[in-house]
């Protein structure tokens, strides 16, 4: 028994994706009772954690700032897969699912993960230090993407309601891809130093002194990452009816489905960001937070624009008044936080209060 436990603890990141694939094959296309749904959800979380683990392994091989980019893109692929599969299965009920999930991802990353990273960093060193140039550029990109994709549909007049016309949706999708692509080029090619920890601010740990994985180990992790991602998307599709029925039974609004999806997908990334902040690498934490927000919009909007060819019904992207107020306040507070290049417990607390307000208003609009 002890040998089995040691084996499982050492190779959990290999075992969980494979078990997730087996559970997916067994449960696909079947209705689940609550007990089985909980078991499937456990494997879903396990597959998500293993996906992030393998993304970090690949990231260690390629180094920063590529590492944060790989992790953000991996998480966004999970998110896009969840959104599209739920939209296909739910029909018109999911007209606002993409908007709710993307907005939730922005609030979670720009307030929840962002604030938690600053709080942990400030507790560690009294002041959390980061690179204002790179972080400011990332925040500006997130604000632009969010405004183009989530705010403008509320005010356009070509179509009734908070929706884009076909041409407007195409423009938003192309603009999102282009802007995200330009940011990635700046982050990885033109100005990568702007996204690295400030010199002297980091306290290297034993983990960072470890030799990077070999090429074969990185390729194995890449393969297991793909298996884990397939498992996450497939298992989410299997358990989605139970999530929706549970939210309805609790008397919560339909928009809470998007919040649950975003929380589920971003939980492992939150853990990764906190781990980086505890190692005095707050810049890496902020790269993860803002990179995920950016990828959530820059990759999700084009994906659902393409999927809308096959999905019937309207695609509601425009935010309501309460959501726009929260987004505007997040951008303003974020800019004031980023400009000095350093933050205390207060800034972290402000962002976490904004995140708490978002969760409360999502449950009690």
Automatic annotation (TrEMBL):
Any one GO MF annotation of this record: potassium:proton antiporter activity
Domain Sodium/calcium exchanger membrane region as annotated: residue spans: 35-188, 221-362
Membrane topology: Multi-pass membrane protein
Pfam families reported for this sequence: Na_Ca_ex (PF01699)
GO cellular component, one term: plasma membrane
Matching InterPro entries: Alkaline_pH_Ca-Antiporter, NaCa_Exmemb
Subcellular location: Membrane
Keywords: Membrane, Transmembrane, Transmembrane helix
Domain of life from the UniProt record: Bacteria
Transmembrane segments annotated in the record for this chain: 35-54, 66-89, 101-123, 135-155, 167-186, 218-239, 245-267, 288-311, 317-338, 345-363
Name used for this protein in its record: Ionic transporter y4hA
Source taxonomy: Bacteria, Bacillati, Actinomycetota, Actinomycetes, Mycobacteriales
């Amino acid at each position: 028994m002890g040998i089995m436990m040691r084996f499982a603890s050492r190779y959990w990141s290999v075992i969980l994706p494979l078990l997730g694939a087996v559970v997916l094959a067994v449960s696909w296309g079947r209705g689940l009772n609550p007990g089985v749904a909980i078991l499937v959800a456990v494997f879903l979380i396990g597959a998500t954690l293993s996906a992030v683990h393998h993304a970090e392994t690949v990231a260690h091989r390629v180094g920063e700032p590529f590492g944060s980019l790989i992790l953000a893109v991996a998480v966004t692929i999970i998110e896009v897969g969840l959104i599209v599969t739920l939209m296909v299965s739910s029909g018109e009920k999911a007209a606002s699912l993409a908007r709710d999930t993307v907005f939730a991802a922005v609030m979670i990353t720009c307030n929840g993960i962002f604030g938690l990273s600053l709080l942990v960093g400030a507790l560690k060193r009294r002041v959390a230090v980061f690179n204002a140039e790179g972080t400011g550029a990332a925040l500006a990109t997130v604000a632009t993407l969010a405004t183009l994709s989530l705010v403008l549909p509320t005010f356009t007049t070509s179509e009734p309601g908070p929706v884009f016309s076909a041409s407007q949706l195409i423009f938003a999708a192309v603009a999102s891809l282009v802007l995200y692509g330009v940011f990635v080029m700046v982050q990885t090619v033109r100005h990568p130093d702007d996204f690295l920890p400030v010199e002297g601010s980091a306290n290297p740990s034993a983990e960072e002194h470890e030799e990077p994985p070999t090429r074969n180990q990185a390729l194995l992790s890449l393969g297991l990452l793909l298996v884990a991602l397939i498992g996450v998307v497939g298992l989410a599709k299997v358990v989605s009816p139970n999530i929706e029925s549970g939210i309805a039974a609790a008397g919560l609004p339909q928009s809470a489905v998007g919040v649950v999806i975003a929380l589920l997908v971003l939980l492992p990334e939150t853990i990764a960001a906190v781990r980086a902040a505890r190692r005095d690498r707050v810049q890496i934490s902020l790269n993860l937070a803002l990179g995920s927000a950016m990828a959530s919009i820059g990759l999700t909007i084009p994906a659902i624009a393409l999927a809308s060819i096959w999905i019937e019904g309207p695609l509601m992207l425009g935010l309501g008044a309460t959501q726009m107020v929260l987004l505007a306040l997040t951008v303003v507070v974020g800019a004031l936080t980023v400009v000095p290049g350093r933050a205390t417990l207060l800034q972290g607390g402000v962002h976490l209060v904004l995140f708490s307000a978002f969760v409360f208003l999502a449950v009690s609009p």
